[in-house]
Design brief:
The chain is an alpha/beta fold. Helix content is 35%, strand content 23%. Strands 1-7-6-2-10-11-12-13-14-15 form a ten-stranded mixed beta sheet. A five-stranded mixed beta sheet has the order 4-9-8-3-5. The longest helix has 15 residues. The structure holds adenosine-5'-diphosphate and magnesium ion (2 copies). The site of one magnesium ion (MG) has 3 residues, from helix 12.
């Protein structure tokens, strides 16, 4: 049920560019723009597609029926894509025209839905539009407090370093690059172009580990980016997956965080900061060359207030990155992350409350 729609901007063109040409975009975020198709499921649905209750995977042929199944269960459609959620979160906090997001979408109504959701928080996008593939979809099966995500990248998989090069003015303008680790399955050259530019110009490069399957199955791609991480963020399961695939022989989060902080670094002008969130447990932060590993408690939330924890980590990263852009202290950046995550889990889907709240 895909159809062509009339866009207000750049009709018939190869991109959807919602930028305010007068704007100065301090943060450039890159990853996969996805539409989340989210519904309450059950064990039978998980079994049908061989899914774990709490996981994120890329869809194979055998998974393609899940989107129809979710729609038949009265699915909600939400703007998703981890780094796009983060970008919306950072823009939610920062002044107008602070964040721009790039990635590839299809020529369909789903791309328009994403543009609309981003517009709500003032996030601007420069989407490459693929002629053949539809906008990527992330099927979210909710069972109790668990979320199983199954992503069909489709158009999102068509992003190329050439597309980034076409918008190099944005890269030059930004002072901070945020890359979602999920993009490591799509375009390592685009990620490396940002990483190397950051090191060369002493700008900030931040990467999210995104999901356990990234350090597990995209280890070499991830490792290629490691020397460029000024900030790396992930949750406890992703950190442990990294430890397992790199034979660190530990599951201890502070130990893993310290290890990541001490990996070789390309730009010696900035010390690396590693941030590992752990749901309701304290957030662990390790800084390169510092012995002490910091722990910051989360903002407690009453169970009755939790609507949906989808995207808690993405929201955390959004608040954190907004703090970094504002030049806040590490403690404040973490607190801004906890604050935004707290707001987001009171909403359905990876969303933020309106009227806007201020930190
Ligand atoms: P992910 O969504 O990637 O699994 P986490 O589950 O670690 O990430 O959540 C990220 C952050 O979201 C936490 O550090 C915390 O600030 C916040 N958060 C998540 N769940 C809760 C909760 N139940 N109560 C309060 N804060 C939470
Ligand atoms: Mg979690
Ligand atoms: Mg996460």
């Amino acid at each position: 049920a895909l159809f062509h729609s009339c866009r207000q901007l750049n009709i018939n063109q190869k991109s959807i560019d919602t930028r305010n040409k007068m704007g100065k975009y301090e943060i450039l975020a890159l990853e996969n723009p996805l539409l989340d198709i989210q519904a309450v499921g059950d064990q039978a649905l998980l079994d049908k597609y061989g899914l774990k209750p709490n996981d994120a995977i890329l869809a194979e042929e055998k998974h393609m029926g899940i989107y129809e199944d979710l729609i038949n269960r009265k699915a909600d459609f939400n703007a998703g894509g981890a780094a796009q959620n983060t970008a919306r979160g950072a823009q939610y906090i920062l002044p107008e025209d602070s964040v721009v997001f790039v990635g590839c979408v299809g020529k369909d109504k789903y791309a328009d839905l994403l543009v609309e959701a981003n517009k709500k928080v003032g996030l601007h996008t420069v989407y490459r539009v693929d002629e053949e593939q539809p906008t990527g979809r992330c099927g979210v099966v909710i069972t109790g407090h668990d979320r199983s995500m199954c992503t069909d990248l489709a158009a999102a998989n068509c992003y190329k370093v050439e597309h980034l090069k076409e918008n190099w003015d944005l890269v030059k303008q930004a002072k901070l690059y945020f890359v979602g680790g999920y993009h490591l399955t799509v375009s390592v050259p685009a990620i490396m172009a940002l990483a190397e530019e950051a090191a060369k110009e002493n700008k900030i490069f931040m990467l999210s580990l995104s999901a356990p399957f990234i350090p597990q199955f995209f280890k070499d791609q991830l490792d290629q980016t490691a020397p460029y991480w000024d900030y790396v963020v992930g949750n406890e399961t992703e950190a442990r997956s990294y430890a397992a695939s790199h034979d660190l022989n530990t599951e201890d989060i502070p130990t893993i965080a310290r290890h990541l902080a001490q990996l070789p670094k390309a730009n010696s002008q900035r010390k690396r900061t590693v941030i590992i969130t752990q749901g309701t447990d304290p957030t662990v932060v390790a800084v390169q060359d510092e012995d002490k590993v910091h722990e910051f408690p989360v903002h407690a939330i009453d169970k009755s207030e939790i609507a949906d924890t989808t995207g808690a980590g993405d929201a955390f990263a959004g608040g954190f990155v907004a703090g970094v852009a504002k030049g806040e202290s590490l403690k404040t950046c973490v607190d801004m992350g906890q604050w935004l995550a707290h707001l987001s889990i009171k909403e359905l889907g990876p969303a933020y409350p309106f009227p806007k709240q201020t930190y």
